[in-house]
Design goal:
The chain is an alpha+beta fold and about 260 residues long. The chain folds into 3 domains: about 80 residues, no CATH class; about 45 residues, no CATH class; about 120 residues, Endonuclease, Chain A (3-Layer(aba) Sandwich). A hairpin with a 6-residue loop joins strand 4 and strand 5. Helix 8 crosses helix 10.
Amino acid sequence: MVNVKFLFRILPFQLFIIFIYRNICNMIKLFTEKEFEDARGIDKLPLKCEHCGKTFYVQKKMITFIEKHKLNGRGSFCSKSCCYKNQEKHIECTCSNCSKIIKMKYSEYIKSKSGNHFCSKSCAVSYNNKHKTYGTRRSKLESYLEKKLSKLYPNLEIKYNSKEEINSELDIFIPKYRLAFELNGIFHYEPIFGNHKLEQTQNNDKNKFQLCQENKISLCVIDTSSLKYFKEQNAEKYLDIIKNIINEALCEQDSNL
């Protein structure tokens, strides 16, 4: 907690220094530890401006105050102008999803806690969906099908919501037959959340289909948009579709033996 009484005794220039250093991470010190120890509180010590490289001086007590109260952030600057210019400068980086070279403000670049940067919201959503390590948005229909298929085919390996095969989620995947199922609800066909969102969803569906072809996976897309509310009796027809396709694959394998 900052000492309020102490703040009222600080000179205007010192208040300006606090403003500048509220976003400071590493002061570029141009003095040794011994010089710091030998200096008095009012003695000024040299620092280097991160933006322009100019040497400027700050009192020892102010440096101590900044470090003690952890006024941390992005660099050390000799003036407000250098602070603002440094935040507004642009740097080049790579989109973490599509590898496109992008330019972004330095102030925006350093905000990323994960170290990932994206050229668009679409790329950010796509990347996060591929790499999320917790939670999956599973419908009641998906949970129902997993329960039923596990009982019907106890000796058959079936993966649910797997991302291992094409780096994108497959609702149901059977490795033995290179067979996958996607359950596409109404959001894949109608602009419930707007035309832009629908276009993104349909583009993702096309990319997923192409990735399956490249990886020699047979993808079966099942339209579940007519299922407005989940009821087991209404979900049985989707289970039957999947069962028939799996049974065909089983029969085909038996005939090849």
